Amino acid sequence: MTNRENVILAMQHKKPAWTPSMYTDIDLVLQSAVMERYEGRDIGKDEFGVEYQYNEEARGPVQRPGDRVVKDIENWRDYVTFPDVDNRDWEAAAARDTAGWDRENKFSVVQMYNGMFERSHMMMGYEDTLCALLTDPDIMEEFYTEYVDYRIKLIRNIAKYYKPDAVMIFDDYAAKDSLMMSLNTWRDIFKKQIKRLVDVAHECGMYYILHCCGYVRPLVEDIIEIGADAIHPVQAANNPKELKEKFGDKLCFIGCFDNVNILDREGVTEEEVVAEVKHVMEDIAPGGSFIAWRSFFCQLPDVYRREIQKYIDKEKAELSES
Questions:
Q1: What is the residue extent of each domain of the chain?
Q2: Segments of the chain with pLDDT less than 50
Q3: Which of 150, 220, 240, 254 has the CB geometry, 3.0–4.6 Å to 234, for a possible disulfide?
Q4: What is the 3 state secondary structure string of the chain?
Q5: Distance between CA 186 and CA 216 in Å, rounded?
Q6: pLDDT at 192
Q7: Residue 232: beta bridge partners?
Q8: What's the pLDDT at 321?
Q9: Is there a cis peptide before residue 301, judged by omega within 30 degrees of 0?
Q10: CA–CA separation, 33 vs 118, rounded Å?
C-alpha cells in the first residue's frame, strides 16, 4: 500500500494501515495561477485590490490596517472586479507548483485561502461585514453567489491542470470559543454556497477539505450534510475526541491538537508537546478517519514531528509482524 492509498482510506472515513501524516504522506501547495493573496515580503495587492504587508509575527502577508476596497455594500459591484480565471497560463502555474510532487506515492492537496467570508471582511472590514450580514443579507448573498461562481471556475481549472487528490479551502467562521455569527446566519447564507463548492470538487474527482479555525463544533453536522470529506484543524476547544467518536464514520478529522494552549504557545516545553502528541495519537487517532497535521505556528516542530513519527513507526512495525 502506498502512502497515498493510506491517506485515501482516512479521507473515506475508514481505518488506514497506519496513521497518515502531513510530513510524509502529503504534497501540499497554494495555487499560484490567481493571486488571491499577495505573497511577497514587501507591500503589494492581490487581484481584488486588497493591500498587504509582510508581518514577521504572522509569518506571512497580512492586510494593511485601514485598507478598504468596498466603500458601500449596496454598490459593491462598483468596487469589485473578479479575476479573469481563463486569461492566464494554467499549464505553467501547475507545472511550477507541482514540480516536486510524488503523485504515485503521496496524496496531493491544493490550498485556496480567503474563502467567501474572509474575502468579504478583507474587502469591506470585519465590523461592516458582520453588520451587513444582519442589515443587508440579500446583498451579501448576491456577492457570495458571484464570488462562489468565480471560485467554481477556479476549482475546475485546478482539477484540470493541477490534478490534485483534494482541495482545501480556508474560511474561518469561528473565534476561539464561539461562532463569529449566529448559526442561523451561517446556515441561511453560507451553507448552500459551500455545498456548491463541495459538489463541484466531487464532480471533478477531488476530495473537499474544509478549513475553519476556532469553535466550529456547532457546524459539524451541517458540514457533513453538505458532503465535505474532511475538516481541519478541529482545535481542542471543539472536543475533537468526542466529535470523532460520534462522526468519524462520516467525516475525516485532520489535526485535533491543542494549538492555542500548547503547540503554538510561546515558551511551550518539550514535555508539553510530547504529552499533547501522546494524547491525540492514543485517544483520537485510533480507529482511522484521522490525519496528523502540524499547526502553522508550532513552536517546536522538530519535537512534534519526532513524536508523531514514533507512533507511526510503531504502527508500521506491528503491521509487518501481523
A1: 3-34+65-71+96-321
A2: none
A3: 240
A4: CCHHHHHHHHHCCCCCCCCCEHHHHEEEEECCCCCCCCCCCCEEECCCCCEEEEECCCCEEEECCCCCCCCCHHHHHHCCCCCCCCCCCHHHHHHHHCCCCCCCCCEEEEEECCCHHHHHHHHHCHHHHHHHHHHCHHHHHHHHHHHHHHHHHHHHHHHHHHCCCEEEEECCCECCCCECCCHHHHHHHHHHHHHHHHHHHHHCCCEEEEECCCCCHHHHHHHHHCCCCEEECCCHHHCHHHHHHHHCCCCEEECCCCHHHHHCCCCCCHHHHHHHHHHHHHHCCCCCCEEECCCCCCCCHHHHHHHHHHHHHHHHHHHHHC
A5: 11
A6: 98
A7: 211
A8: 86
A9: no
A10: 20
What pLDDT score was predicted for residue 58?
Answer: 83
Closest CA to 213 of 252, 247, 260, 278: 260
- Residues 97, 32: contact at Cβ < 8 Å? yes
Position 145 scores a pLDDT of 98
| Grid coordinates belonging to 279 | 494524547
> Into which CATH architecture does domain 3-34+65-71+96-321 fall?
Alpha-Beta Barrel (3.20)
Instruction: Take residue 163 and report the three cell numbers written for it.
Output: 490534478
Residue carrying C-alpha cell 475546475: 156
Please report the pLDDT score of residue 265 as a whole number.
96
Phi-psi region of 66 (alpha: psi -120 to 50; beta: other; left: phi over 0): left
> How do beta strands 207-211 and 230-232 pair?
parallel
The set of cell numbers assigned to 261 is 494552549
- The CA distance from 254 to 293, in Å, is 6
C-alpha gyration radius of the chain: 20
Is residue 287 within 8 A of residue 15, CB to CB? The reply is yes
